[in-house]
Amino acid sequence: MDELLEALEEQIIVPRSAGTYAAEPLTAPPRKPDRGFKQSAQNRILIRGGRVVNDDRMQDADVYIEDGVIAQIGSDLHVPGGCRVIEAKGRLVIPGGIDTHTHMQLPFMGTSAIDDFYTGTRAALAGGTTMIMDFVLPSRNESLVEAYHKWRAWADPKVCCDYSFHVGVTWWGPKVTQEMEELCQVHGINSFKMFMAYKDVWQLNDTELLHAFDACKRLGALALVHAENGDVIKENSTKLLAQGITGPEGHEMSRPEEVEAEATNRACVLSNQVGCPLYVVHVMSKSAADVLSEKRRAGYVVFGETIAASLGASGSHYRHTCWRHAAAFVMGPPLRSDPTTPGHLMDLLANGDLQTTGTDNCTFSGSQKALGKDDFTKIPYGVNGVEDRMSIVWEKGVAQGKMDPCRFVAVTSTSAAKIFNIYPKKGRIAVGSDADVVVWNPHATRVISAKTHHQAVDFNIFEGMEVHGVAEWVVCGGRVVVEDGEVRVVQGSGRYIPTPVYSPTVYARTPARDAAKAWKKVEREPYTGPVYVANDASNDGTITEIEPQSVKATASYARSSVKVNQPPGGNASGSFW
Ligand code: URP
Ligand code: ZN
Ligand code: ZN
């Protein structure tokens, strides 16, 4: 480990390929200066002596922050006196993490997630994540726009870090298309999640999925899918319960890998049929991840997100003899029992086949999970991760020599910012970018535990794991929120970040791709020979030859009638047309 860190320190600073920039400046609302953010030296910060890491290069430089944005980067900076100085020698200075997938205080399966927008975002900051992307999930027939306002009202007074929303298309109808448009044009939404599981609750059928993908394409939005075959899960669950398998192991048995891989493949095919870019959330298995790799190689515009849980834990816990322990890991799709899964997912993340890391943070206490004590289908789904994601990715990725710090930055923030069109405001240490900055100590270690974590939930799926990589200082929107490991947040100080449609990372390819793939009619002379139709009246296999132009006209246009015992295509009965 120490050799690796030394090697990183010696690393030559090499520019990589240029990134894709957001087409237009973003228009997030101004910060709220009256919420603990005084107009004083507190809003002028110098991070001195660290190594700045972006997804494409590393450089030793100081970073000067003023009024919530990065104002200067370099050495020997001219900064006003009286600014706050953070010493970062021997540390990496990285963009604040972006967790692409959380569910704070989600009302779900008869209860609500215990980490709300306050405890959840506070924990995020403690671990070096400065922005979360949460989900508005309307109930069946609920207005999407009303649900969006409801979620905003929950989040705005509580969030300690910046946040945005994906919106669930949890049912289908003409009103949904109109509301999707309003959400994109007025409310800064550029991504919609469709469910292929949760039968009779949120699941869409294939025709509805096609329509939803089509709507996303027309709006320049990104289609997100939860890829699992909900019909298979429902059937398997019924059979398992009938056989007396009621414990958490039944959860995993009801939805094996191929159930995820099949849906992943189907989602790729359906979205590709309508030319809609696709982002598969919470990729949990090797085979589902391999489907995405294969499709990307075949030119499909698909992106894959994996999560801290699948990189840092395994499905063996479902067989734990303590019910509470086993139930704590229940989530959909489930963790996989194949012990090579976390390593494989990390390999794909490192080589670019998977692009982002979220957490699916959706936490329930032991007594909430106990709603399913006699029936695994009633255990509320969800695990923690928002606080530990950055450390898990560092430990399993960088510390194992699978990825370098630039790729670490890419998969923890930059790729998300590009895909969801908030780059380079987010996901980059650059002049003009939001001052969401983490001073990351790659040498430091910590042991993860529910006893010390900042989340409200009483269990941590990474309990006892020692991880390298600690967020020692965290600056969010120009405010120091983690100070030498101490968390100091202000409730409600985070901002809602609108995500504009037509992300260049997602959509720049589509016009040319659509043109290249467009259906082309074959120009030919019209057919002028005889046309045969069945004789309706006789119903005995007799067919009538009619003029080609008279096919849609009445039988009185018939020219001749020929009795045929075995007409081509078999005996016709009734009218074929
Ligand atoms: O287990 C999970 N994933 N809970 C949250 C809902 C979802 O499907 O993302
Ligand atoms: Zn999901
Ligand atoms: Zn989720």
Shape: globular
- How much of the sequence lies in strands comes to 15-25%
Q: Biggest sheet: strands side by side, in what order? A: 8-11-12-13-14-15-16-17
Portion of residues in helices? 25-40%
Instruction: Measure the end-to-end span.
Output: 74 Å
Query: What are the segments in which pLDDT stays under 50 over at least 5 consecutive residues?
Result: 1-26, 34-39, 551-577
What's the tally of helices? 17
By helix and strand content, what is the structural category? alpha/beta
Largest sheet geometry:
8 strands, parallel
Q: Could you tell me the radius of gyration in angstroms?
A: 28 Å
Question: How many strand elements?
Answer: 24
Mean pLDDT: 90
Small-molecule binders here are: N-(aminocarbonyl)-beta-alanine, zinc ion
Domain Amidohydrolase-related: 92-481
Cofactor: Zn(2+)
Modified residues (N6-carboxylysine): 193
EC number: 3.5.2.2
How would you characterize the overall build of this protein?
The chain is α/β, with parallel strands linked by helices and 577 residues long. It is built from 17 helices and 24 strands. Helix 5 packs across helix 8 and helix 8 packs parallel to helix 9 (286-297). The structure holds N-(aminocarbonyl)-beta-alanine and zinc ion (ZN) (2 copies). Residues 226, 281-282 line the site of one zinc ion (ZN). One zinc ion is lined by residues 226, 281-282. GO terms for molecular function: dihydropyrimidinase activity; metal ion binding. This is dihydropyrimidinase. Belongs to the metallo-dependent hydrolases superfamily. Hydantoinase/dihydropyrimidinase family.
